Automatic annotation (TrEMBL), chains A, B:
Pfam families: Aminotran_5. Keywords: Aminotransferase, Pyridoxal phosphate, Transferase. It comes from the Archaea. The lineage of its organism: Archaea, Methanobacteriati, Methanobacteriota, Stenosarchaea group, Halobacteria. This is Pyridoxal phosphate-dependent aminotransferase. Belongs to the class-V pyridoxal-phosphate-dependent aminotransferase family. Residues 1-26 are annotated as: Disordered. Residues 38-339 form the Aminotransferase class V domain. The keyword GTP-binding does not apply. Its cofactor is pyridoxal 5'-phosphate. Its EC number is 2.6.1.-. InterPro entries: Aminotrans_V_dom, PyrdxlP-dep_Trfase, PyrdxlP-dep_Trfase_major, PyrdxlP-dep_Trfase_small, SP_NH2Trfase/AEP_transaminase. One of its GO terms (biological process) is glycine biosynthetic process, by transamination of glyoxylate. It comes from Halobacterium hubeiense.
């Protein structure tokens, strides 16, 4: 048995987080994290819960009563959505166009679902015609799609068409909005999404730990009329309804500090205005995009599907992705990430999310990349990149 | 659709948290919560993970390599333990002597287990003879017990006897140590516990959000040789092994800030020394116990099973529990809690946990209760209570 370990004071390096998340946290949100706690059943916490739910509805563009933070990271909210809406024997239609579509399929399988797939290449959105074909062939009960694929940097377009197809077949639609909520246009109600989940550490710039989830009445009706309980007690929304609903009954101890932080992060969204925030992400990420394109590096997805919050930038000839990532971390305390799954080694994933979507951050990214490419011997026009980003920012 | 909600600055009341948790958080831990984040795959975070694991092993009194914080609140760690160690068709033996034994049973059922029970009255520990009988009758594969029952204030004694019985029958033992870790004597390795889970917001005085879990090799062997995947992807320990083990592969985004905070809370444990910390809890809670007993209020469990971290104090004649709880909240910003389940209305649950286990806190509790009983007309000797607590603290 060990003696008391001698562990020093917490002093992590000061990073600029421009990977796929966590993104840079606003100082006001960090301050909220350090607020002394009240109990999770305290009368004052009920108000905080109400306010957080109201702010979440605003960010999701929904009137769904059933809109809550799940006590865990984004994958917990994801499994809450999938595990509660998939009953054993249900057919679940999941996309093949990215890493997180595969995760959806895996979670649906564990929930007892029969998983069928609708295909699109990595980096492309689903084609509504393919979704219609998949519905005709498989008659799925639940259809999941990824609005903002963090692995490919592609945005799903034509969302209302997809939800129309699903509803014509009486299926429920689950949207993965982990990398879009608060940064990229998302209209849950108008677009007919029945359930959407997200993470706080992307475009909301909040530390991970309490993760947004919203369900409309159709989705909640299914949850509350299941024949068999969901397989997770922790994520059982019919039980959570007792805590986040009118009753406020004890289920589990809510992550009080993470709710404080999420509330503050969502206040920042409300202060800025959700449309203005979407516009800022597109504008600032556009300057990043202009910069890397001027250096001669393409983005992985086509412009039509470009996801401002997550830029999948092709690795230029002459360098290894890992060397570039290490270089900018070592020289600039700057985090960017490698590709995931099928795109591993082919792209850098550069986030432009929330508090990270600022001119100074994307300027640093382009300058640091330019330096890295120069130092490591990649054949790119570094100076052109910097100029293009500067120009794009000036025009704004 | 709502306009941007106008939600004010976060300003919760300043409570003294002496309920069943969350407990008062040490200022150093609050400060850790507000530390700017690094990425969950940052090389510097690997060191922080290693240190947190080392500190967790120290607090659990274990050498188990597989010792991690689960990304969720205590119930997530609970379901991780139960859901991974219970395969469909396994027989799971759970106790009937408290609220959290019932929760164990419910989670085991959802994992596909056949649940059988071993009985003891609420407020009493399991008798090893009854456990032996239950093993002879049911031959369970997994045996769960609650070391510190937060609903009854009773401590399970004779733990090594229980684990011996289980191991004679080749069963694995899961211990709920939510309200004991870091506050009440707990020796995972010496006592033969195969898996134990806890919460950070009890005797570790850390905000909820990342919850301790430890498994020995026998337990992990079972997890890694399951025939069927666990029903939760999020809590699948074979996948988490990729992140917290040597590989450091991405599974989900760890709650970085909560890990920072847990690390700092565990540093405080290491600085104080785990045995000294157990002794402090017993000493300070003893002064609380002396006070309420001198007022004529019994504790629910017998002295032999008294749990210093959670004092289940009988509600005196002449008052309603809710009126007293509201009174001390209104007049003293002091949180204590009502009974849970079978003891609802019969007891107050008064925590004495971690940073809350200090003379000033228990003195406030006894003084506030004395005032409440006096104001609300309960027939107790309030002055005697205060004197007894004062005496007990002076003797120390």
């Amino acid at each position: 048995m060990t003696d008391a370990p001698d562990v020093g004071e917490l002093s992590p390096p000061q990073r600029t987080l421009m990977g796929p998340g966590p993104s840079p946290v606003h100082p006001r949100v960090l301050k909220a994290m350090s607020t002394p706690l009240v109990g999770h059943l305290d009368p004052s916490f009920v108000d905080i819960m109400d306010e957080t739910q109201e702010l979440l509805r605003y960010a999701f563009r929904t009137d769904n009563e059933w809109t809550i933070p799940v006590s865990g990271t984004g994958s917990a909210a994801m499994e809450a959505a999938i595990g509660n809406l998939t009953e054993p024997g249900d057919t679940f239609l999941a996309p093949t166009n990215g890493y997180f579509g595969d995760r959806m399929a895996e979670m649906a399988r564990r929930a007892g679902g029969e998983v069928v797939r609708v295909d699109a290449p990595w980096g492309e959105p689903l084609d509504p015609a393919d979704v219609a074909d998949a519905f005709a062939e498989h008659q799925p009960d639940v259809f999941g799609f990824v609005h903002a694929e963090t692995s490919t940097g592609a945005k799903q377009t034509n969302v209302p068409e997809l939800t129309d197809i699903a509803h014509e077949h009486d299926a429920l639609v689950i949207a993965d909005t982990v990398t879009s909520l608060g940064g990229v246009e998302l209209r849950v109600d108008e677009w007919g999404i029945d359930a959407a989940y997200s993470g706080p550490q992307k475009c909301l710039s909040c530390p991970p730990g309490a993760s947004p989830l919203t369900l409309n009445d159709d989705a909640m009706d299914k949850v509350l009329s299941r024949e068999e309980d969901p397989r997770s007690w922790y994520l059982d929304l019919s039980l959570l309804e007792g805590y986040w609903g009118d009753e406020r009954a004890y289920h589990h101890t809510a992550p009080v500090s993470n709710v404080y932080a999420l509330r503050e992060a969502l206040r920042l969204v409300a202060e800025e205005g959700i449309e203005a925030r979407w516009e800022r992400h597109e504008r600032v990420a556009g300057a990043l995009k202009a910069g890397v394109e001027a250096m001669g590096l393409g983005l992985n997805p086509e412009d039509d599907y470009w996801l401002p919050s997550l830029n999948a930038v092709r690795v230029p000839a002459g360098v290894e992705d890992g060397d570039v990532i290490d270089y900018v971390l070592d020289h600039y305390d700057l985090e960017i990430a490698s590709g995931l799954g099928a795109l591993e080694g082919d792209v850098f994933r550069i986030g432009c999310m929330g508090h990270g979507a600022r001119p100074e951050n994307v300027t640093l990214v382009v300058a640091a990349l330019a330096d890295a490419f120069d130092a490591l011997g990649a054949d790119v026009d570094a100076a052109a990149g910097l100029a293009a980003t500067r120009e794009a920012l000036r025009e704004q």
